Amino acid sequence: MLPTKRPRGGESHLTAHVNHAERFMIFARAMDAVDVTRGMYVQSLRRSSVTAPREVEGERYVVTILRVHLKRCIVGNGLTRSGHVHVWMPTRHKLPTVLHEPLAENGYTAVNAEVSWIVCYLARNFPDTTKVGWQQFECSHLCAGAGVPEGMRCVQPECLHWESKSLNQSRGYGFCHRICLHSRCRQHLCMCQRLHDPPCR
After folding, report:
1. What is the pLDDT of residues 28-77, one digit of tens each?
2. Helix 20-33 crosses helix 115-123 at what angle (to 10 degrees)?
3. Separation CA 112–CA 96 (nearest Å)
4. Any residues with CB less than 8 A from the CB of 64 and at least 6 apart, and which?
5. How far apart are CA 70 and CA 83, in angstroms?
6. pTM of the prediction?
7. What would the pLDDT profile of 87-121 be if each residue is shown by its tens digit?
8. Secondary structure (3-state) at 161
């Protein structure tokens, strides 16, 4: 059973934390139902210095808005514990004004969204709803946020994965990234011993 609608911007402790993946799916379904045009976006920006991006053939304009919006907000990059590049930005974002009303009409009444959710939506990276307890899954960072400054969040699509809270928390241990001592292996233990699936980054 999906959570009931709440006042715009309102989030209970239960909905915000316990049913993380369930709330994301409400956001994703609402975003799928949004139909905005470039003209509507231009009209919403009449008092802003932001420029509306051009339409991309074959791409829904709401996807174009989100993709360009995220690109503008990236503030830094670095390496994960295993040497992969990842980028970061502030944790939460106010969604573009043109999306507030159509999202609310389709069940997502908050005006903010976690950047991880936006990245997952654009990458079509959704929780596996066939698994027991998927509603409580968290958007785990395979990089465990290594090197990401306080108040920022990794938004590298390859780093994001939906899994249980216990698996998510276990990725924070440094053990995964010790180098395997097997002859000629030299992989991180998480990769060599399959400590996590998918392995940490």
Report:
1. 999 999 999 999 999 888 777 788 999 999 999 999 999 998 888 888 99
2. 60
3. 9
4. 53, 55, 56
5. 23
6. 0.83
7. 999 887 789 999 999 999 999 999 999 899 999 99
8. strand
